[in-house]
């Protein structure tokens, strides 16, 4: 009889970016074994190892490290609002300390705050969180030496967990973890007070804006005491929706430090998430925020996900700003406020965006003087790129609402609250007339004559001049129109008739069609016989058994599906960019499903892109084609 490996049912928890899954799998035995695996992992790390990110934060760490004794191999641990996240954190902390590691408990915090505190020590940290997932999901994120783990690192941790279990068969009962069976000893770990955790973080961000204002001569500030010498509060009315997540504990304290009027929504930490999943990118999730912004005539609305690393915003007209456009706005912030020390007049700074972002974004970024670089989806992958010595990227963002500054002012992490504050300060102090008029010369590809004073319409339909301090709609009103579907998740079915995945199959088909179109273009004017050979072809791809029967495709069909000039990217799934829209189909890194998104300059353009993908998929998967056809725009 075949022996089932230990923790085989938990293998699915070890995903591309973190450990995450249904709470039923987080048994007492599994959590304790996980703690042992983390202990071995951290003990194997070099003490006080330095990398690009660590060196960048040396000054910050020396300014803000608390006054108690610092020991090598220090791990900071925090947790989110979910039921039992605190219990898991306590168990992990106790096991790490039992194995000779110094542990500092941060309590209920956001994941970016864990990263901030990790930077003050060895760059090691654990965060018990399932981010934006549903309430019955639990998870763990972590940092090792200032960096997020790769997919291979995560699988290696799972293998270590299995090895440890074989070597020392745990006697712990395989029951769900709760406060009655938690394995911990509070006396052996150090804890920071809630006030210290929050105040230190807030003061560090205040120092960022002091430095930015000094750099741009916006204020004359003595930087000798960054805790007290900060800029005046922004004359803004802002609305914040915490979605009952981890930001509920700090958002009001943080934003009232910088803004005069702050209106809070859903700011009671509640792991049951009574208003819905803590995911601000879900369709219609921000209806309450939109209404509150309009009723209170607020300048902006901000929404954060469950662990504070995703940001979505609502402009002063109550409209949700798409993540593509928000990425553009925040890229402007990074480019406008970057210090001279990282400015190279001979090369354009890179801005990273993931493969799901719209076809307008590269054009908009180029207009800002940036070099746009498309990357695979995954905020941890983007952080790894930004932290590499070869990187010249100043900013990175993705459709899911993760935004990362790499301009030397703060930690290299997707901190939603920090990103929101950077946008507010930019609008109030740094944004110029050029930032307002820039979008008018974009995507529609026409030379627009700009008046000396631009005029716009206010919320009540009355004309008003566009003058500083600028409102968010002064900039967003002229961004190119985008009609888009949401980021849809489609169940991924197994196809026993083929040895390739759905995405690989689609990629091979698109490559073939593109070769057919390109070859036909090159062969024009050649003998008719040769042209006939190109006119009809049979594609047989050795990597895909589903193609073995062969399928006849006319060149005219290929040209109709992928017209000349269509851009194909297969760095992460299949993305096709057409003249007036784009579409992407990719394998999700966090679930057994496909993620699909289509966008166009109009509803008709979106439907055209969608129809092309339906036709492409129908050639090998009728079910997938049918499901794609039923997706509707937001």
Give the secondary structure arrangement, pairings included:
Blueprint: E1 19-22, H1 28-43, H2 52-56, H3 58-64, E2 74-79, H4 85-98, E3 102-108, H5 111-119, E4 124-128, E5 137-143, H6 151-167, E6 190-191, H7 194-215, E7 234-241, H8 251-258, E8 259-265, H9 287-295, E9 300-304, E10 311-314, E11 320-321, H10 323-336, E12 350-354, H11 361-367, E13 371-375, H12 379-387, E14 393-397, E15 403-405, H13 416-430, H14 433-437, E16 455-457, E17 463-465, H15 472-476, E18 483-484, E19 488-491, H16 502-523, H17 528-535, E20 536-538, E21 552-554, H18 555-561, E22 567-569, E23 574-578, E24 581-587, E25 593-600, H19 603-618, H20 622-629
Parallel strand pairs: 2-3, 2-4, 3-6, 7-8, 7-9, 12-13, 12-14
Antiparallel strand pairs: 1-5, 4-5, 9-10, 10-11, 14-15, 16-17, 18-25, 19-25, 20-21, 22-23, 23-24, 24-25
Helix pairs in contact: 1-4, 1-6, 10-13, 16-17, 16-18, 19-20
């Amino acid at each position: 009889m075949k022996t089932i490996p230990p923790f085989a049912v938990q293998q699915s928890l070890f995903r591309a970016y973190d450990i995450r899954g249904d709470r039923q799998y987080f048994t007492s035995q599994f959590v304790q074994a996980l703690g042992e695996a983390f202990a071995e992992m951290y003990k194997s790390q070099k003490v006080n190892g330095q990398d690009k990110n660590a060196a960048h934060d040396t000054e910050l760490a020396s300014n803000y490290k608390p006054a108690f004794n610092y020991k090598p191999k220090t791990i900071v641990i925090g947790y989110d609002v979910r039921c039992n996240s605190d219990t898991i954190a306590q168990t992990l902390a106790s096991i790490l300390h039992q194995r000779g590691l110094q542990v500092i408990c941060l309590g209920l915090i956001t994941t970016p705050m864990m990263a901030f505190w990790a930077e003050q020590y060895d760059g090691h940290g654990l965060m018990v969180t399932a981010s934006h997932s549903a309430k019955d999901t639990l998870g763990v994120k972590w940092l090792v030496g200032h960096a997020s783990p790769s997919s291979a690192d995560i699988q290696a941790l799972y293998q270590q967990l299995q090895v440890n279990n074989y070597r020392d068969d745990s006697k712990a009962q395989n029951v769900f973890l709760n406060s009655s069976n938690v394995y911990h000893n509070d006396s052996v770990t150090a804890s920071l007070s809630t006030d210290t955790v929050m105040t230190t973080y807030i003061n560090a961000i205040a120092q960022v804006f002091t430095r930015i204002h000094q750099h741009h001569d916006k204020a004359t500030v003595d930087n000798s005491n960054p805790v007290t010498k900060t800029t005046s509060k922004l004359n803004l009315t802002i609305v914040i929706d915490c979605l009952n997540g981890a930001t509920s504990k700090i958002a009001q304290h943080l934003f009232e430090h910088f803004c005069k009027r702050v209106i809070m929504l859903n700011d009671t930490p509640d792991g049951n998430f009574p208003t819905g999943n803590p995911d601000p990118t879900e369709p219609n999730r921000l209806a309450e925020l939109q209404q509150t912004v309009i009723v209170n005539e607020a300048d902006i609305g901000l929404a954060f996900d469950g662990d504070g690393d995703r940001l979505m915003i609502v402009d002063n007209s109550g409209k949700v700003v798409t993540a593509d456009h928000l990425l553009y706005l925040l890229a402007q912030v990074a480019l406008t406020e970057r210090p001279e020390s990282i400015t190279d007049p001979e090369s354009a700074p890179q801005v990273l965006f993931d493969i799901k972002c719209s076809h307008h974004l590269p054009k908009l970024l180029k207009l800002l003087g940036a070099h746009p670089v498309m990357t695979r989806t995954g905020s941890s992958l983007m952080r790894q790129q930004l932290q590499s010595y070869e990187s010249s990227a100043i900013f990175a963002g993705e459709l899911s609402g993760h935004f990362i500054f790499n301009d030397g002012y703060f930690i290299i992490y997707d901190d939603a609250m920090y990103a929101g504050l950077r946008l507010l300060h930019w609008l109030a102090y740094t944004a110029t007339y050029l930032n307002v008029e820039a979008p008018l010369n974009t995507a529609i590809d026409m030379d627009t004559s700009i008046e000396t004073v631009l005029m716009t319409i206010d919320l009540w339909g009355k004309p008003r001049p566009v003058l500083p301090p600028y409102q968010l709609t002064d900039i967003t009103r002229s961004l190119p129109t985008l009609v888009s579907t949401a980021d849809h998740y489609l169940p991924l079915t197994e196809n026993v008739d083929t040895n390739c995945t759905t995405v690989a199959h689609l990629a091979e088909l698109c490559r073939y069609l593109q070769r057919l179109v390109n070859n036909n273009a090159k062969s024009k004017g050649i003998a008719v016989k040769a042209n006939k050979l190109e006119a009809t072809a049979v594609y047989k791809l050795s990597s895909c058994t589903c193609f073995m029967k062969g399928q006849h495709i006319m060149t005219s069909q290929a040209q109709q599906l992928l017209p000349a000039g269509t851009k194909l990217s297969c760095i992460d799934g299949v993305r096709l960019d057409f003249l007036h829209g784009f579409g992407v189909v990719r394998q999700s890194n966090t679930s057994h499903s496909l993620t699909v998104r289509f966008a166009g300059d109009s509803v008709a353009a979106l439907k055209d892109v969608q129809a092309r993908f339906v036709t492409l998929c129908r050639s090998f998967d009728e079910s997938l084609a049918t499901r794609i056809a039923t997706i509707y725009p937001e």
